[in-house]
Design goal:
The protein is an alpha/beta fold. It has two domains: about 250 residues, Rossmann fold, CATH 3.40.50; about 280 residues, no CATH class. It is built from 21 helices and twelve strands. The structure holds adenosine-5'-triphosphate and magnesium ion.
């Protein structure tokens, strides 16, 4: 890296000399797109969404991408961001070919999407702080707080620092969106429609803010917009029409280029010729417009640059800590969710206990049969069998009810866990969040819920239903495993599904099928049972618990009710439930790795 001295205007120069790293010559464009095409396959045909886009953007530049709806603005922005891979052409950043050499680091680039990207339950300050802590590797807390305060003042949100994100206005949310991206001080800031839907005054304020963010240093800010107002605040405007670049130059020369009297008339004029014709004529004029830009830029190029060294991303453990503490904070602030959890935590064990308030009677045994007459013998045998059936049925029913309710809790724990915050997660992943830290934070958070729910359920039932057979610790472990298995599987579903609604629905279906497909209540065809059962966590919880209860007196009673369903040893049940947990977490990880922006 080279360093050069920057001399501010004379009176100041006597006092201070700035030394700052230079990564590029101010006369060279920092961002260049050369003949970029982006094509998608639709069945047999290929559709070109971006055609032959060639643009150069200088440092400290504020650029608008405008064009009619559906012309490819978002697509182009995503190609620049690296979210869509170009089909042909090259993108250069500081002279570096991004396809061949090192890609942009997550900290070098900020992408502000159109959707809201913060948790409603957190305050503005907390949201920015967590963005800083997730994106910037820095030692001290004090430094983090200073960075957070700097970002707050950059976007003018100091007075709103304690306000909850959920109650912010549209304009304030857009400011927050920008603030989150500024956490890592990116040199390229890409914004998609951050001004759409705002009133004219708020729109102007946000455009002014972006203008300031660009002109403050070497940062390039690109804003995609429908709106043709405030164009004078941009350094250049790129007009896109049906995937073709048809103009890229200063806003002041646009009306002249399109031979219209005001910017508003550009869209109607575009419709008069085909996009290919417009593109061809732009190809002819492009050079002269770029020459003009260069002159403009050289005049304004001598600004003190920000330190453009990319910020280092924090390690996995540091990110895990931030995510975990944030998750608990959100959990405790979501009152409805807390009430639902409490209702389940206290209500479900009560439901189980109601069926066993009289306790579990001791099983009877057949007396020695030698001295009694055959009729009496049959009568006693029937009584004992009935007694065994009653006790076996009670134990089997209680255990099944317990495990089904735990699977219901499990699905409630995690059905929306990833799907419900998918866009926020995608955004954070793009900004450098490790998927492993994210999944680990979910595991720690959910594991706490699972252990509390299962242990409480087990102990509550144990103490209110007298004389339940079997080892309590073993049964508690089984209950934890059943709940954990369902929680993990639903976490996997929520990582794989596109929307939280899909994920919740599938998880609830899965709980609904636990009872019928376990084969414990109604027998399934012999060939089908082993197939369905394999995937039914409740069956393994039920089977494992009953197997543990088969000690001493109760084994005959349990055998009577389970002879058709053949219980498997507790150790097998442990293993299969552990496999369910592993499968769920793996699915969640694979699902989280995928890109799901829509
Ligand atoms: N994955 C895809 N499959 C099929 N068509 C797509 C896909 N992505 C984008 N398109 C199409 O490409 C075109 C450009 O989409 P894009 O979202 O870039 O438009 P836009 O200019 O941002 O529009 P708007 O101003 O409405 O946001 C649209 O016609 C859109 O339907
Ligand atoms: Mg768009």
């Amino acid at each position: 890296m080279t360093f050069r001295l920057f001399f501010p205007p004379l009176p100041v120069c006597v006092l201070r000399v700035y030394v700052y790293p230079v990564r590029h010559n101010h006369h060279d464009p920092v961002l260049s797109l050369e003949k970029i095409c982006y094509t998608i396959d639709k069945g047999d045909e290929k559709i070109e969404l971006i055609s032959d886009a060639t643009i150069h953007v200088n440092p400290g530049h504020f650029m608008a991408i405008v064009g009619p709806s559906g012309c490819g603005k978002t697509t182009l922005l995503r190609v620049i961001a690296g979210l869509n891979e170009e089909s042909s052409g090259n993108i250069f950043w500081n002279g570096r070919n991004l396809a061949e050499e090192e890609d942009l680091s997550p900290a070098e680039i900020g992408y502000v999407p159109q959707f809201s990207i913060a948790f409603d339950e957190l305050s503005v300050e907390e949201s920015i702080e967590s963005a800083v802590r997730l994106r910037v590797r820095s030692g001290s807390r004090k430094k983090m707080k200073a960075m957070r305060d700097h970002v707050l003042s950059q976007v003018g949100m100091k007075e709103l620092r304690d306000r909850r994100v959920g109650v912010l206005s549209g304009g304030q949310k857009r400011r927050l969106g920008l603030a989150l991206e500024l956490a890592s001080n990116p040199t390229l800031l890409l914004c998609d429609e951050v001004t759409s839907g705002l009133d004219p005054k708020s729109e102007q304020e946000i455009v002014q803010l972006m203008h300031h963010l660009a002109n403050d240093g070497d940062r390039i800010v690109v804003n995609v917009t429908h709106s043709l107002s405030n164009l004078e605040l941009y350094d250049t405007v790129l007009v896109l029409f049906q995937g073709h670049v048809v103009y890229h130059g200063p806003p002041a020369r646009m009306t002249h280029y399109f031979s219209v009297d005001s910017a508003e008339n550009i869209y109607p004029t575009l419709a008069k010729r085909s996009s290919a014709q417009w593109h061809k004529s732009w190809d002819k004029h492009r050079c002269s417009y770029y020459q003009g830009n260069k002159a403009d830029n050289e005049a304004g190029a001598s600004k003190p640059g920000q330190d453009s060294m990319p910020t280092a991303i924090p390690g996995r453990l540091a990110q895990l800590q931030v995510l975990l503490s944030r998750r608990w904070k959100i959990f405790f602030r979501d009152r409805t969710q807390i009430l639902l959890h409490l209702a389940m935590l206290f209500g479900f064990p009560l439901l189980v206990v109601i069926f066993g308030l009289d306790g579990v009677p001791q099983p009877r045994h057949l007396p020695s049969l030698s001295s009694v007459n055959p009729l009496e013998q049959i009568g006693t045998q029937m009584e004992v069998t009935t007694n065994h059936l009653k006790i076996g049925g009670l134990l089997s029913g209680l255990v099944m009810f317990q495990v089904i309710l735990l699977t219901l809790m499990g699905s409630n724990n995690s059905a929306r866990e990833i799907a419900g915050e998918r866009l926020i997660f995608e955004k954070e992943k793009f900004a450098g969040l490790h998927v492993s830290s994210y999944i680990a934070s979910k595991i720690f958070f959910l594991a706490t819920l699972v252990v509390i729910q299962s242990v409480w359920m087990g102990i509550f039932v144990e103490f209110l239903i007298p004389s339940l057979p079997g080892d309590l610790v073993g049964r508690l472990i089984i209950l934890i495993l059943v709940n954990a298995a369902m929680t993990s599987i639903c976490l996997g579903i929520s990582g794989m599904m596109r929307t939280p609604e899909q994920s919740s629905l599938l998880s609830i279906y899965l709980v609904g099928f636990q009872l019928p497909l376990s084969g414990a209540v109604l027998s399934l065809p012999h060939w089908l049972e082993p197939v369905t059962r394999t995937f039914i966590s409740a069956y393994w919880g039920w089977s494992g618990s009953l197997d543990l209860m088969k000690d001493g007196n109760f084994s005959q009673a349990i055998n009577v009710v389970t002879e058709d369903t053949s219980l498997l040893a507790t150790s097998v049940c442990f293993t299969i439930l552990t496999l369910h947990i592993t499968a769920g977490i793996t699915a969640a990880y694979i699902g989280a790795k995928r890109h799901r922006w829509h």
